[in-house]
């Protein structure tokens, strides 16, 4: 009986250790876009409702954002570079790309939409 318990424990350790290391490795390779990937981010159409260069934030009414599975909505976003907001005003039609930067959805690209 004691041998059976030892075999069960050893089998659990032999099988369990590789599985836990595989799980840890999959967490480390979680998909995270970086500035080098910005060209691959989808450009989304939207309209500026409010710009606050002082806080570096902008409110956009936008279409679906496919890379985050986000439906069309109105939302406040942080600008990756607050200086990018200086040239925009409420009512402007824009195209933009967002990415997750330090845990927050952040605008990494913003341009006027072609008329």
Report the order of strands and helices: HEEEEE
The name CATH uses for the topology of the domain at 44-112 is OB fold (Dihydrolipoamide Acetyltransferase, E2P)
pLDDT < 50 runs, ≥5 residues: 25-36
Terminus-to-terminus distance:
80 Å
Shape: rod-shaped
Quantity of strands, as a count: 5
The strands making up the biggest β-sheet line up spatially as: 1-2-3-5-4
- Helix count, DSSP H or I runs of 4 or more residues: 1
CATH architecture tag of the domain at 44-112: Beta Barrel
Binned, the helix content reads 10-25%
Looking at this structure, what is the CATH superfamily of the domain at 44-112?
Copper binding periplasmic protein CusF
Radius of gyration, in angstroms, nearest whole number:
23 Å
CATH class of the domain at 44-112: Mainly Beta
Outline the structure in words:
This protein is an alpha+beta fold and 115 residues long. The protein has a domain at 44-112: OB fold (Dihydrolipoamide Acetyltransferase, E2P). Helices cover 23% and strands 35% of the residues. It has one helix and five strands, in the order αβββββ. It has one helix spanning 2-28, and strands at 44-52, 57-62, 73-79, 93-101, 104-112. The chain has a five-stranded mixed beta barrel with strand order 1-2-3-5-4. A hairpin with a 2-residue loop joins strand 4 and strand 5 (104-112). The radius of gyration is 23 Å and the shape is rod-shaped.
């Amino acid at each position: 009986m004691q041998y059976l318990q030892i075999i069960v424990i050893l089998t659990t350790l032999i099988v369990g250790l590789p599985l836990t290391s595989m799980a840890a490795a999959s967490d480390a390779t979680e998909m995270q876009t970086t500035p080098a990937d910005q060209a691959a981010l989808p450009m989304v159409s939207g309209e500026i409702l409010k710009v606050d260069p002082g806080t570096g934030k902008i409110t956009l009414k936008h279409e679906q954002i496919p890379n985050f599975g986000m439906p069309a909505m109105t939302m406040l976003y942080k600008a990756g570079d607050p200086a990018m907001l200086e040239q925009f005003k409420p009512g402007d039609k824009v195209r933009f790309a967002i990415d997750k930067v330090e845990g927050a959805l952040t605008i990494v690209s913003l341009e006027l939409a072609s008329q």
